[in-house]
Specification:
mainly alpha
């Protein structure tokens, strides 16, 4: 419904900003109808949500990359010694946290007496990725910095923990099976928190930035026009307001798409990526599907960060902001 809106004169602009009574009524009606819809509808939406959740995880990664680069640029632009010290301190702290988390994961998910080679592989890969990201970011031919690399590394360590903690509770290499309920609740809270933060950050950036989530061709104001005569001035202002609407500052379509994908991801998080999960109903976000989704997201996160560093070297004919 929001596709193609470029200025506030569009009648659909009021649908985006207003009509809250109607929106709440429709929302409440949909909640009630969901209890009466046939199961096939829920199954179709479940399948859609699995793909939508994957897209939202990619959006989270892009948002994180945008945040870390913006954070780094903001502190570097200050060009003061104390901010450089702050950059170094935060980077070192993030790397200490990354390897500390990895050490704890070895203790929790590699118990003695069991063959836990898969868990060991996941943890070692996290440590290798963290080291590799630092080396690539500090390479003289790459326009990188240690702060984004360290933040991405600690996020990868969190994804590794999140994936391993989602292993089935009867899996011998899951050392947290004795605290299943607490871990399940903690994983849910962390997952929902990152989801909320991602949605809020994307909404804030969309409202304040001229490039992030902005429409592809927003009209721009031209040069200065000569002043009107005093007796033409008032009427001219009114005619101009009526004929020319203010351009929108971000894409309404993408704005709502972010929220739709976030709701799909929340549904998958709450149902363990499967509505017919045969496990305990008290455990949330548990199963091998969740494990591989988290681990693959970790690897994709590292890959996208590396691509953001080497893309200007490969695609020399393109300009990167």
């Amino acid at each position: 419904m929001m596709i193609g809106i470029k200025d506030q004169n569009d009648k659909r602009d009021s649908w985006h900003h207003g009509g809250w009574i109607a929106k709440i009524a429709v929302w409440a009606l949909l909640i009630i109808l969901m209890f009466f819809l046939p199961n096939v509808v829920v199954t179709i939406y479940e399948t859609m949500s699995k793909f939508g959740s994957g897209l939202f995880l990619l959006v989270q990664v892009i948002i994180l990359l945008d945040f870390t680069h913006s954070w780094n640029d903001a502190w570097v632009e200050k060009d003061e010694r104390k901010w450089y010290i702050a950059l170094l301190s935060v980077s070192v702290a993030c790397y200490i946290a990354t390897y500390a988390i990895s050490a704890v994961l070895f203790i929790w998910f590699n118990p003695s007496g069991h063959d836990c080679s898969l868990n060991v592989f996941f943890i070692v890969m996290t440590m290798v990725l963290a080291f590799a990201l630092a080396i690539i970011a500090l390479h003289p031919q790459v326009n990188g910095s240690l702060l984004p690399a360290s933040v991405i590394s600690v996020y990868c360590a969190y994804l590794c923990y999140s994936g391993l903690s989602s292993e089935p509770r009867d899996y011998a290499c899951n050392g947290l099976h004795k605290h299943a309920q607490g871990v399940s609740t903690g994983t849910l809270i962390l997952g929902m928190l990152t989801t909320v933060l991602s949605v809020l950050y994307s909404a804030i950036r969309a409202g304040s930035s001229t490039t992030f989530l902005s429409p592809p061709s927003s009209p721009k104001s031209g040069g200065k026009k000569p002043l009107l005569d005093s007796d033409e001035l008032e009427g001219g202002k009114e005619d101009k307001k009526e004929s020319e609407g203010q351009p929108i500052s971000y894409s309404y379509t993408f704005f709502h798409l972010i929220f739709a994908l976030a709701s799909m991801y929340s549904a998958m998080l709450l149902t363990g990526w499967c509505s017919s999960n045969s496990g305990s109903s008290e455990l949330i976000d548990v199963g091998w599907t969740t494990v591989w989704v988290r681990i693959c997201t970790e690897w994709i996160t590292a890959g996208l960060y590396v691509w953001s560093l080497i893309a200007p070297l490969i695609l020399r004919d393109r300009e990167f902001a």
